[in-house]
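Format notes (please read before filing issues)

Several people have asked whether sequences and structure tokens are stored in separate files. They are not. Every record keeps both together, in the order shown below: the sequence lines, then the token lines. Line labels are part of the format and must not be stripped during preprocessing.
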Amino acid sequence: MANENYVTFEIGKTKHIALVAHDGKKKELVEWCDKNKEILKGHFLCGTGTTSRLIAEKTGLPVKGYNSGPLGGDQQIGAKIVEGQIDFMIFLWDPLEAQPHDPDVKALLRIAVVYDIPIANNLATADFLLNSRYMEGTYDRKVQNFNRTVQERVEQMK
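Then the structure lines:
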């Protein structure tokens, strides 16, 4: 389970997938989900407000909705990653359009990397993830042992 520097977390057979898209990419993500709904229906789906609702309405898939991104949805997804409740994320962000909540977007992407969560930022990568051999099985991801890091920092500050 844990060695000195890392903790291993198992991603189970049923994946917890976060679905996020900026306004200019929502249509692409909705169409991708509709095309892949036979695979996606076997997994737990969640997403930010408008995106989750559009996907659910178009595909009939159950999607747990959080707040809209600019209203804290990105931060809610980030918190779920930290809590171990999200296994990977499809986040179609728009690289050509500035977002009013860019700091939240950067924080979400950073926390996904810190917790070793696979991230697809475009449809090609989303296809690769969804068709990976790991979709049908389990996968062990390694995360830095933050309890040890905190303990070391506490010792240094005494």
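For reference, the curators noted about this record: The CA atoms of residues 46 and 128 lie 20 Å apart. The helical segments are 26-35, 37-40, 49-59, 73-82, 102-114, 123-130, 146-157.
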